[in-house]
Amino acid sequence: MKKITSYVIPYPEKKIEHEVVLLIDVLRSTTVISYLFEYGAKKVSMVRTVSQAMSMKGEESKILGERKGLKVKGFDFGNSPYELKVQYEKGFNFSAHDYVITTSNGAKAFSKVCENSDVMAASFQNYLKICQYLETADDIGILCSGTKSCVSSEDLYLAGKIIQNFLNKGQYSLNDDSNICLALAGLTASQIIEKSSHALALKKLGFINDLNLCFSEEKFSAVPFSKRGGLTFRCF
Hints:
Layout: E1 2-7, E2 20-24, H1 29-38, E3 43-46, H2 50-55, E4 61-67, E5 70-71, H3 81-89, E6 98-102, H4 106-113, E7 118-122, H5 127-133, E8 139-144, H6 153-167, E9 172-174, H7 176-184, H8 189-195, H9 197-204, H10 208-214, E10 224-226, E11 232-235
Parallel strand pairs: 1-8, 1-9, 2-7, 2-8, 3-6, 4-6
Antiparallel strand pairs: 3-11, 4-5, 7-10, 10-11
Helix pairs in contact: 6-7
């Protein structure tokens, strides 16, 4: 039987290796990556540290990211889909550059899986397209990035929606983490936003527009895909 193995946080003691892993960081890195590709980006690299990102900055490479939720000094963009949307509407040509992103949680989680598995960056904007691509996959991992090594309800919520979609089309064996995620799938986005500690923290920082975008199901056609052993997402 096909199987889905979820991880509600990146457990340090577990080796995460699957046919493909869906990386989830709703607030906000995988959402930002989805927006970058929808706006025309061809390549997005994800790195752990600010110094790595800065070393990759150049005329053709823009760097994005945050620490403690805020844009890093010297970066071209923060970790904000709303900021990207504003720039896109102003006419910024996203297809003219490559991108490098580093974040507090998503980049750390990505580093746990990129060496051993193919990875797709999952968001509310592209998860239905991802589910279509993976209908024939036998071994799917879902990694929730969490926040500061703690569970983030918004990541579990999206994981639950993804699992529910797969179950509507076929039979899969689920681990306990997957069942926990599935239990949240029946809630609404507004219920998650009201209770999520990460969402509340972003509200305090003034990122309410980001919250609205991060939970919008826009049905993007681009699927960010990183081959096993790489640090770079390309459009799948």
